[in-house]
Design the sequence.
């Protein structure tokens, strides 16, 4: 599938790398097809990736794997909300959280309350609101900064 994107120019994505989010995302209910884009040329692993809409090339949402930032992140989810993704196992479940990057970079945060759950076997995903008392704006600047310091030790 080809897409013209605002951030990445024209891209070609193999069909098996398209993630279907049938219910859309919070704030983007009509966008249903996405792909993950990350900088594979970087020597160091980046915490932030992009969830690029294949339906609207202007929409690319920064996302992160929450356990890279908060190792004990384990939200409670009603299993019925995940049924349409197919059988989930620890091996095929990929969880992302959206990243907010404000003008003041020190205020960068992730939304732990509304993760995106993807079944990597079916490439189906959904965004949901978890029952736990996780923060909508969990600040991560110091975590990223400390992680870069540790990598450079």
Sequence:
């Amino acid at each position: 599938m080809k897409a013209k994107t605002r951030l990445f120019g024209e891209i070609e994505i193999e069909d098996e790398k398209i993630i279907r989010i049938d219910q859309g995302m919070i704030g983007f209910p009509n966008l249903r097809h996405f792909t993950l884009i990350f900088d594979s040329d970087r020597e160091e692993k980046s915490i932030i990736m992009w969830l690029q809409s294949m339906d609207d090339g202007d929409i690319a949402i920064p996302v992160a794997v929450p356990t890279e930032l908060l190792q004990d992140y384990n939200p409670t989810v009603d299993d019925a909300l995940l049924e349409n993704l197919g059988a989930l196992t620890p091996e095929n479940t990929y969880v992302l959280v959206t990243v907010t990057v404000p003008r003041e970079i020190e205020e960068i945060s992730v939304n732990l309350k509304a993760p995106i759950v993807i079944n990597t076997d079916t490439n189906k995903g959904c965004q949901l609101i978890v029952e736990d008392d996780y923060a909508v704006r969990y600040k991560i600047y110091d975590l990223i900064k400390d992680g870069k310091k540790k990598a450079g030790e």
Remarks:
- The two ends are 42 Å apart (CA to CA).
- Confidence is low (pLDDT under 50) at residues 149-153.
- The chain is about 5% helix and 30% strand.
